[in-house]
Design goal:
The complex is a heterodimer of chains A (287) and B (172).
Chain A: H1 4-31, H2 40-79, H3 84-116, E1 121-129, E2 137-140, E3 153-155, E4 160-167, E5 172-176, E6 190-192, E7 198-204, E8 208-213, E9 225-228, E10 239-248, E11 255-261, E12 270-274
Antiparallel strand pairs in A: 1-2, 1-12, 2-5, 3-4, 3-12, 4-5, 6-7, 6-9, 7-8, 8-11, 9-10, 10-11
Chain B: H1 4-20, H2 33-45, H3 47-65, H4 71-85, H5 97-119, H6 126-156
Helix pairs in contact in B: 1-2, 1-3, 2-3, 2-4, 2-5, 2-6, 3-4, 4-5, 5-6
Classes of the chains: A alpha+beta (287), B mainly alpha (172).
Chain lengths: 287, 172
């Protein structure tokens, strides 16, 4: 028979677990909605982790370069065993060359985009990704000290990447367009087609982007580009993606378009923060 | 010094998770270093250490993401506790222990995350999530646990729990 002391201990543990659960769910409920301000604790943590993340990112890029070299080396070995020794050196050079070419292309594209864009842009590097399979967010090395504010759009040379969800002095968290919470709380992106059809972008878990139309009979062609309309916080005329297929919802009038994103979200290195917002309530708009 | 090594490994797992895991993504699915470390701590050191690691690691993730704060504290904390409750019932040098723990821990943790997201109104297609995210990620974590468990187990030889139930550095 269990002693009363043991019972007491178990009861206390059960009570503590219950209180912890209630507190956790309360905290989740409070922070479930989008916030433009982060708490001092989050700010301090981001500031402390920033140099560690930059250092880890640097090491990871180096390791990736080595990994790429090894991969190419293996392929070349299979192709030509007789020239193995020469191929080893060539593969390493090739790998380095590819990295340089890629960086060169990205920088050229970024420069070209900067010339083309009608908005003021701020270049930023991705230093970390959200450590979770459920959220799609990245951290960039520009923060409130550089003029970055919550809800500012973030783009790369391919198109719209996402929007700033929170800032600290040195970093900013970017919520990607493929994050399931992107369109929630009215902070998403209004969208339009070249034909003038208007709608709203929503993202489901799994990164599927859908455009819901305002009209019940939209004129859509596969492959058409989809741009932001400027109706929400994201400025107009930023490329979101391309029309994929038109689907019907529960009601026959409920039409939505599956959109193939323009951006390759697996290769995010250099991004640009658009220092302009269509709604002044998220912060002061740039000229 | 008592918990410095364990905390260091946990912070390293967080850094690997937030920076390196995207380079290791297969089909958009990333391995969960933190989960594997939490499960390993639970299996090696008991539920108290598993819970502490889960809460600390979960807090790091939640504060980085900046929303649903408490979600990963809950999911990783629960996984840490359950892994820890199995601590005195398993053979720690069994090679199948880590992969099995990694797989079950991953499924449990992600199920808790999906349930909470659904509870707060997210549109999460449960079956789709199971097929496209939960099971592939669990398989990935299973492999990762198999690779990492042995390395942390080496530290276990130096960080054996003493009879008072706390962890001490073994002195020679």
């Amino acid at each position: 028979m269990p002693s009363p002391m043991r019972n007491n201990k178990q009861l206390r543990r059960f009570g503590a677990a219950l209180v912890a659960l209630v507190l956790l769910f309360g905290l989740m409920a409070v922070t479930a909605r989008e916030r433009s301000q982060v708490t001092p604790v989050e700010k301090a943590l981001a500031t402390v982790l920033y140099p560690l993340q930059v250092a880890t990112d640097w090491v990871a890029r180096k390791v990736q370069g080595v990994g790429q070299s090894v991969k190419e080396l293996t392929q070349l070995r299979d192709e030509n065993a007789r020239l193995r020794s020469q191929v080893e050196a060539a593969a390493q050079l090739e790998a380095r060359n590819q990295l340089l070419v890629r960086a060169n292309q990205q920088l050229r594209s970024a420069l070209g985009m900067k010339d083309r864009s009608k908005y003021p842009l701020l270049a930023a590097e991705v230093i970390s990704r959200t450590p979770d399979n459920w959220y799609r967010m990245v951290t960039i090395n520009r923060g409130s000290r550089d003029g970055v504010k919550a809800n500012m759009a973030v783009v790369n040379w391919q198109g719209l990447v996402g929007k700033v969800s929170a800032t600290t002095p040195f970093t900013a968290t970017v919520q990607l367009v493929i994050d399931a919470g992107f369109g929630q709380g009215g902070f998403g992106a209004g969208a339009k087609l070249p034909s003038g059809e208007l709608g709203v972008i929503q993202t489901a878990q799994g990164g599927h982007i859908q455009m819901t139309f305002f009209s019940s009979d939209p004129a859509v062609q596969t492959g058409q580009p989809v741009f932001t309309s400027g109706q929400a916080v994201i400025p107009p005329d930023l490329l979101i993606g391309y029309a994929d297929s038109l689907s019907t919802g529960e009601s026959a009038f409920d039409k939505f378009l599956n959109v193939r994103p323009a951006v390759d979200f697996n290769k995010l290195d250099t991004l640009h923060v658009v220092l302009y917002m269509t709604q002044p309530d998220g912060g002061a708009a740039a000229p | 010094m008592r918990y410095t090594v364990l905390t260091g490994i946990l912070v390293l797992a967080y850094l690997l998770q937030s920076v390196v895991s995207s380079y290791l993504a297969i089909g958009g699915i990333t391995p969960d270093f933190l989960l594997v470390v939490v499960v390993t701590y639970g299996l090696l050191f008991g539920w108290e250490v598993g819970l502490s690691a889960g809460v600390f690691g979960g807090l790091l993730i939640d504060l980085t993401a900046g929303r649903f704060i408490g979600l990963h504290v809950l999911s990783l904390g629960v996984v840490g506790v359950f892994a820890g409750l199995a601590e005195d019932k398993v053979f720690k040098d069994n090679m199948l222990l880590a992969p099995a723990g990694g797989f079950m821990g991953s499924v449990a943790s992600q199920t808790i995350v999906v349930f909470c997201l659904w509870l707060f109104g997210w549109r999460v297609p449960i079956l789709g999530a199971l097929r496209t995210t939960i099971l592939p990620a669990a398989l990935y974590d299973m492999v990762l646990a198999g690779l990492l468990y042995g390395r942390i187990y080496r530290y276990y030889l130096y960080l054996r729990p003493d009879p008072r139930g706390t962890i001490v550095i073994r002195r020679h």
